[in-house]
Amino acid sequence: MSRFAILLLAFPTIAAFAQQASQNSQPPDQNPQAQNTLTSLAGQFFHGDFVNFVAEGAGIYDNNRALINGGQGGAGSFGFSVTGGVQAYHRFRTSFLSLSYAGGYTDYQGSGYGSGTHQNLSLLYSRQLSRRWNFGLVESAGIFQYGVGYYGQPNAPTAAIANPFSPSTRFLSSGVSLGYRQSARLSYEFGGNFFLARYSYPGAIGTTGVSGSGSLVYRLTARTTVGATYSHSYYRYQQSAGQAILDGGYFNLTHQFGDFWTASLSVGITRSDSAGIIRVPVSVILNGQQVTGYAVGPYKLDKITPSVSGSVSRRFRRVLTTVSAGQTVSPGNGFYLASRNRYISGTASYSMGRRANISASGGYFFLTSLSNTISSNYGTGSFGASYSYVVARHISANFRYDYFKYGNVSSLGGVGDNRLTFGVSF
Q1: What pLDDT does residue 3 have?
Q2: Which of 37, 62, 269, 405 makes a 20 to 30 Å CA pair with 92?
């Protein structure tokens, strides 16, 4: 799902660029929003390529400042955020480089909860080494706060999933690939990935992992490609919680319908071998009062999980839509370790001429543990919609609505939250 998953849509201009760059690696002349931002002298030096700098200030109202203790809600609160970023694209003779970065600070009145810094980086580099060999590099990293409608980066080899106990989450996902084209129809692809996730609460179980894969790709027709992939992954968990080894085999199919529809499908199985010692939060009633603690115990599980994922994208004039769904095995979210992840996500963007843009995104993740023996399941979802309008040259106003939902974990209740944001971008 990494290529078609939804980007953090906190800033419409940056999100639109990231989707455009990750899917067809084209300059922003097909993206009206990118044209509305400031182009630097460096962009002129690139003779048609660009470097855009973006700054934004926004006011926020959140109707439920979520609290960590048991997922109980708090009163509504006003806040503000300031953000700066850069977007860059350059095509060399035999390669191209695209970059999107945003960083800023959010503050809520009357409570430090939910306040703090946020960052988002997405980098994509591809180089044609020779007539037959091609090299690729993907970097994705960031910090996001609790209550942000967040989904994995489009370029991330491994997507980070939010943790219901963590005020903030830090992640890093890196990938390298090497492709060899044997003929006009047959090619081979080899890849290696590194993944890291850290959570900011006592006893959090972060993840560090590596993976490798090999694929055979065969182009049946100009519009249809089939292939097969084998992957091997190793994840190590903090707090001596153990490890997970994943092995998977998949059949892949990609087809382009007409000039604007593209669909992909991957079907296979994943074997997960997990072992370690886990601490699971539990609640008991003592003398009529609820007391929260931890249950500690060893685990060793070996499971085979069907894996299927698919996506459909539609690009036509001013409209861009993508929908992804499937069942995969993920490294978890720091509470659920190696997990079966059922998900559905989608995004849509519509450019209303050169001045206005409407975009929306949403998705839902449903985790079932394949490692620690947690009987309950965990679901989290989010929806966001925004409207952006160019007020004057280099200045635009935007209005945004977000809703997110963290589900129940053990005896801890879920949290739902609504957020309204109004900002001005330069």
Answers
A1: 32
A2: 37
